Amino acid sequence: MDQQQIISALEDRAKRVGLPMAEVCKRAGIHPTTFSRWKLSERNPQPKGAAIPSVAKIEAVIAERETAESRSEAA
């Protein structure tokens, strides 16, 4: 999976759970313009892997919402 596929997948998941990316970024402590730069960049950030911790924070915010939604559906 390349950078653009990862970003697209994160956006799709956030949209499915009703979270705007600006809100996801805020909760993850990532500035929304940083996410926008990743989205617009054709290359991975330098140094290689620099964005991995930030992407992990974004992933955690979305996963938390997905878990909350699946619990409420099961109840």
Show the helix and strand layout.
Elements: H1 3-16, H2 21-28, H3 32-40, H4 52-74
Helix pairs in contact: 2-4
Can you describe what's shown?
The chain is an all-alpha fold and 75 residues long. It has one domain (3-74): 434 Repressor (Amino-terminal Domain) (Orthogonal Bundle). Helices cover 72% and strands 0% of the residues. It contains 4 helices and no strands. α2 (21-28) packs across α4.
Characterize this entry briefly:
The chain is mainly α. About 70% of the residues lie in helices and about 0% in strands. α2 crosses α4.
Mean pLDDT: 88
> Termini separation (Å)?
35 Å
Structural shape: elongated
Total beta-strand segments = 0
Count of discrete domains: 1
Helix content: over 70%
CATH-defined topology: 434 Repressor (Amino-terminal Domain)
* Strand coverage percent: under 5%
Query: In the CATH hierarchy, what is the architecture at level 2?
Result: Orthogonal Bundle
Largest sheet: none
The CATH class assignment is Mainly Alpha
The secondary-structure class comes to mainly alpha
Listing every helix as H and every strand as E from the N terminus to the C terminus, the arrangement reads HHHH
Poorly predicted parts:
none
Spatial extent as radius of gyration: 13 Å
